[in-house]
Design a protein that fits this description.
44% helix; 4 strands; signal; 8 helices
Length: 182
């Protein structure tokens, strides 16, 4: 009985490997729009949901391949569990680092359910944060210990536009970099 189950498990595993190889590559343009966002093509490039207007004025969506390459990950469609745990939306058209300025979004991304189990989404937000001069592991550590302080530090990192200089100030106030998009 036990050896029969072992044989069935081995056959199941072998068949699943064979089936995966015969199904072909993940091509962003071939994905349905409801699984496009947070997917990675066989080429290792991120898939990106875009919208466009048709001739009759309707808005339609399509999945495209971005130029963003994900190291050590390919042929990946994000799970519904990670979408929920990280508080992201599969219907997002483009992804902005602005989400890091929302305390609820940062709390979800930094939650153990997301941060420890969803490497694809964490990698994406790690890179978005880095584009703003923020180290995501440090931000998440601060988020866990003192969420208000984390937001203050994020805002002061240059991720948000600087306030106006006071009259008579000789400080050079430059605009913050634009939010990073993929």
């Amino acid at each position: 009985m036990v050896s029969s189950m072992k044989i069935q498990l081995v056959l199941f595993f072998a068949c699943s490997l064979f089936l995966q190889g015969t199904l072909g590559e993940v091509v962003c343009e071939d994905l349905p729009t409801d699984v496009c966002a947070f997917s990675i093509a066989s080429s290792g490039k991120r898939c990106l949901l875009e919208n466009f207007s048709t001739r009759d004025g309707k808005v339609e969506y399509q999945c495209r391949t971005s130029e963003v390459v994900v190291e050590r990950m390919a042929e990946y469609i994000e799970t519904d569990g990670c979408i929920s745990a990280c508080g992201v939306d599969r219907n997002s058209v483009g992804i902005s680092s602005d989400a890091l300025l929302e305390p609820q979004s940062t709390a979800k991304i930094c939650s153990p359910a997301c941060y420890e189990n969803c490497p694809n989404i964490v990698d994406l937000y790690f890179n978005l944060a880095a584009g703003e001069g923020v180290f995501l592991p440090d931000l998440c550590q601060r988020q866990r210990t003192n969420p208000r302080r984390a937001m203050i530090e994020l805002l002061s990192s240059g991720a948000a536009a600087a306030g106006p200089a006071s009259v008579g100030s000789s400080q050079d106030v430059s605009a913050a970099p634009a939010p990073a998009y993929i």
